[in-house]
Write a structure and sequence with these properties.
Number of domains: 2
Strand order of the largest sheet: 4-10-9-8-7-5-6
CATH class of the largest domain: Alpha Beta
Bound molecules: pyridoxal-5'-phosphate
Distance between the termini: 37 Å
Structural class: alpha/beta
Number of helices: 14
CATH superfamily of the largest domain: Type I PLP-dependent aspartate aminotransferase-like (Major domain)
Radius of gyration: 22 Å
CATH architecture of the largest domain: 3-Layer(aba) Sandwich
Length: about 425
């Protein structure tokens, strides 16, 4: 007799038959409903969500004011195209973002639909503003899956046989202190890594050919690697010396995740352009390119945009999200959630030698698994086992890192302490089982 499939299993088997294999799948969870930090699956099981739709629901699943704003806007109009008829929610959202994320003077914002699209446009604007072509990016970077964004993305496994890639893209080493410091102090390490820029200018690309440097202040997919503050300051200085624009990609780190609207404001560095998406719209597709007005205005008429630049419903969702985030002080929540996770992860690190590093900024917290305490020996196996074990206990956790050996937490920041600790208890118990 064949065993009957659960509804989730049935859904996954339909997915396998209908959806291409190349679409990423962290685990076999399903969803029919979500609220706060809980996802209800097709069999009615309540799952604790430590993935937050990959950093999209900082304000929680379905915040009531956001749902209301979506419903109200949907009843008015769904689409006219901002190119054809200007509408208030778009303009109000740009005004809000300009005020929240000033770029050192008059600031302007372009809205698009996805993070990758924001990155594409940021590069296009930088090229037009500087009349140069080159773009410098980093190892372990993730900037999306469209042509330019994919070319800037580091992980080779994300782009097998997908070339030719966009030309004039140069890559240098991300200053990953844990992996590369090899006993040096942070100050020594930063000095050496900044010297790498000098060498890059000699051997790889002339700085006067570079339009922009793009970097995530805290790498997301790359494993929550926090850029050393003084490196970012040095990079800013190097850009200024050579007339290069600095693009900071805050798509994963923005909107409270690091305990502030942006990671860069905590590092004392101002970008020329920055990119935003994910938690801006609480799940509706919306992304933003924010930048110094004179840089943003350098793009020629009709050279940026598209049919769906800032859907009215997405704009309404984003405005309501940002207002709601202000109301509940999302940044304080990010700092609090981050402190709880950091303490628990550090306790786990003391117990289990397989954890080589605990790191992050605010609630953008991760732990890295390595063999024999060696940062050069990633342990993807333990990471995969932990994800699978947590999944069996109704906790959704996702990995990160080019070598898939890092567990990252991107839970909604509105999660209660009880639920957060319940999830962390599961993680700790399951890690204990794996390590025993
Ligand atoms: C830092 C960063 N940039 C860009 C992107 C691409 O965004 P999207 O998936 O919306 O295209 C991501 C997505 O994970 C990201 O984390």
């Amino acid at each position: 007799m064949t065993e009957e499939l659960t509804r989730s299993q049935e859904l996954i088997s339909r997915r396998k038959a209908a959806v291409p294999n190349g679409v990423g799948m962290f685990n076999t969870a399903t969803a029919v409903k979500a609220e706060g930090a809980i996802i209800t699956d097709a069999d009615g099981r309540e799952l604790i969500d430590f993935a937050g739709g990959i950093g999209v629901v900082n304000a929680g699943h379905c915040p009531p004011p956001v749902v209301k704003a979506i419903q109200e806007q949907a009843a008015k109009f769904l689409h006219v195209s901002f190119n054809v008829a200007s509408y208030e929610p778009y303009i109000a959202l740009c005004e809000k973002l300009n005020a929240l994320l000033p770029h050192g003077g008059p600031t302007k914002t372009l809205l698009v639909s996805t993070g990758a699209e924001a990155v594409e446009n940021a590069v296009k604007i930088a090229r037009q503003a500087t009349k140069r072509q080159g773009v410098l990016c980093f190892t372990d970077a993730f900037h999306g899956r469209t042509l330019m964004a994919m070319s800037l993305t580091s992980k080779v496994a994300y782009k097998p046989n997908s070339g030719p890639f966009a030309p004039e893209v140069y890559r240098t080493r991300f200053p990953n202190f844990y992996r590369y410091a090899a006993g040096r102090s942070e100050a020594e390490f930063v000095k050496d890594e900044l010297h790498g820029l000098h060498e890059l200018a000699l051997y790889t690309v002339a700085p006067e050919n570079l339009a922009a440097v793009i970097v995530e202040p805290v790498q997301g997919e790359g494993g929550f690697n926090v850029i050393p503050k003084d490196y970012l300051k040095g990079l800013r200085k190097w850009c200024d010396q050579h007339g290069i624009l600095l693009i900071l990609d805050e798509i994963q780190s923005g909107f409270g995740r690091t305990g502030a609207w942006s990671a860069f404001e905590q590092m004392g560095v101002m970008p020329d352009i920055s990119t935003w998406a994910k938690s801006l719209g609480s799940g509706l597709p919306i992304a933003a390119v924010v930048g110094r007005a004179e840089v943003m205005d350098a793009a020629g008429p009709s050279s940026i945009g598209g049919t769906y630049i800032g859907s009215p419903v997405s704009c309404a969702a984003a405005l309501a999200t940002v207002n709601y985030m202000e109301e509940i002080d999302i940044n304080a929540k990010g700092r609090h959630v981050g402190e709880v996770i950091r303490k628990r992860f550090e306790k786990m690190k003391d117990k289990y030698s397989v954890i080589g590093d605990v790191r992050g900024l605010g609630a953008m917290m991760a732990m890295e698994f390595v063999k024999n305490g060696d940062p050069q020996k990633p342990d993807a196996d333990t990471c995969a086992k932990l994800m699978a074990a947590c999944s069996k206990r109704d906790l959704i956790v996702i990995n990160a890192g080019t070598e898939k050996n890092i567990i990252r937490v991107l839970c909604p920041l509105v999660i209660s302490d009880d639920l957060l600790n319940k999830g962390l208890d599961i993680m700790e118990e399951e890690l204990g089982n794996i390590c025993s």
